Amino acid sequence: MADESAAADEDVEGESEGAAGGSKKKLFLFGGIGLVVLLAAGGAAYYFLMGSATPTTMPDDAGSPVEVQKPVVFFDLPEMTVNLATEGRTTYLKVRIALEVENRAMIDQIQPFLPRILDAFQIYLRELRPADLEGSAGLFRLKEELLRRINLSVYPAKVEGVLFKEILVQ
Known about the structure:
The protein is of the alpha+beta class and 170 residues long. The protein has helices at residues 2-50, 104-110, 114-126, 135-154; strands at 73-76, 80-83, 92-101, 161-169. It has two domains: 1-68; 73-169, 2-Layer Sandwich (Tetrahydropterin Synthase, Chain A), CATH 3.30.479. Strands 1, 2, 3 and 4 form a four-stranded antiparallel beta sheet that branches. Helix 3 (114-126) packs antiparallel against helix 4 (135-154). The longest helix has 49 residues, at 2-50. It is elongated, with a radius of gyration of 35 Å. It comes from Roseibium album.
């Protein structure tokens, strides 16, 4: 019986030494991985914060090119008031829109298509629900859809942007 307890004590000591050796290996492994991650993060921070060796030039420097903003022309469409697609109480949308075009010649190309533009806008706007116009995302979608429709109506002329001067949902 004494021999069995001595053998059991040796097994327990061997297991604890093996476990201690395994935990030291894990400690070194995790420590090494942590060190690599820390060095990578430090290198990335240095690259993004201090990596630019060339000094940035100010726009008023004599040698730097200055980007010139292209002149644009705005064309006001007539004010439109339409009723929205609702059930029950009638809801109206009043909108004033300006079109952004490249130059005056583009306005001359667009002017003959004004009835077609207004028709396309009226048909689209009447199908909207008040929920479609909520938030900045709704207005952005409206702006993009109106721009797409106007460019289809006036092709080959091109409108650069649709700008809302007034939007009122009542």
